[in-house]
Specification:
With 265 residues, the chain is an alpha+beta fold. 27% of the residues lie in helices and 27% in strands. It contains six helices and 14 strands. It has a seven-stranded mixed beta sheet, with helices on both faces. Helix 1 packs antiparallel against helix 2 and helix 5 runs parallel beside helix 6. The longest helix has 23 residues. The chain is globular. It starts with a helix and ends in a 9-residue tail after the last strand. 45% of the residues are buried.
Length: 265
């Protein structure tokens, strides 16, 4: 894999998919359908998925591809693969709250090494460079030319005044019970994979997820957080969160800046 080409391609496809999504987001009311697991899907999910998957298959025909919207890809068994969530935060999109993202990641031997997270309604673009470090690019964004970027780095947390970010659509008592083990000074809510990026930029110290997610929901944000000096671990035993699992389902997890003094459940 040529990592320079990978970064350029993932970034471009994320921006192009973001344009497709925003055309629908800014247009008249759109139809919302239900998938087999009762999760919502819109024309924006489908259009973004078609664009990204075609682009990745054209650029990297020999690399396995897993994408949320193509059930046939969910039987992939390779531990090295590209993985896509074309529109993470569909509920945020439906309610026009802006906290939705385009997510593309590259997983090598079960670990997400490179990823892009683009929040088109918020004009925020995060990705890993070829060398593995993470940046936020400053808009406006040109498709074929990388603009000004700022290196991002996790915080140096104050464990007497931690800043927590939690799910906007899936906040529950289990999350509150776990965060009550910490000295929390600020609790904010965010949708989609933006939560990983807020930890990566130092805007939050940790993100506990005590609820269902799939690998395509987390891989790109996980890669961005890794490249900013953070980590993602399993909630129950604090082992690293790995990818390429059966059914691509994640256990509960914690995304954090390493200075956080973690508690077991």
């Amino acid at each position: 894999m040529n990592l320079e080409d990978l970064v350029v391609t993932m970034r471009r496809l994320a921006l192009e998919a973001g344009d497709k999504i925003m055309q629908i987001y800014d247009g008249p009311d759109f139809q919302v359908k239900s998938k087999s697991d009762d999760s919502p899907v819109t024309a924006a999910d489908e259009a973004a998925d078609a664009l990204i998957s075609a682009g990745l298959r054209d650029a990297f025909p020999d690399v396995a591809l897993v994408t949320e919207e193509q059930a046939t890809s969910h039987s992939e068994t390779s531990k090295t693969f590209l993985i896509v969530d074309p529109l993470d935060g569909t509920k945020e999109f439906i309610h026009r709250r802006g906290d939705f993202t385009v997510n593309i990641a590259y997983v090598v031997d079960g670990r997400p090494t490179h990823g892009v997270v683009y929040a088109p309604a918020k004009d925020r673009l995060f990705y890993t460079l070829a060398g593995g470090s993470s940046v936020e690019e400053v808009g406006p964004f040109a498709k074929d030319t990388i603009g000004a970027t700022t290196p991002i780095r996790v915080s140096s947390p104050d464990n007497r005044a931690l800043r927590v970010v939690a799910s906007k659509s899936h906040r529950d008592q289990a999350t509150d019970d776990y965060t009550s083990k910490y000295d929390v000074a600020d609790m904010k809510s965010a949708g989609s994979s933006l939560k990983f990026c807020l930890v990566a930029t130092g805007e939050a110290d940790f993100y506990p997820r005590v609820g269902r997610t799939m690998e395509w929901d987390t891989a790109a944000g996980h890669a961005v957080l890794n490249g900013a000096g953070g980590a993602v671990i399993r909630f129950e035993d604090h082992d690293p969160l790995l990818y390429g699992k059966d059914t691509f389902a994640n256990p509960f997890f914690i995304a954090y800046a390493p200075g956080v003094e973690l508690k077991l459940p």
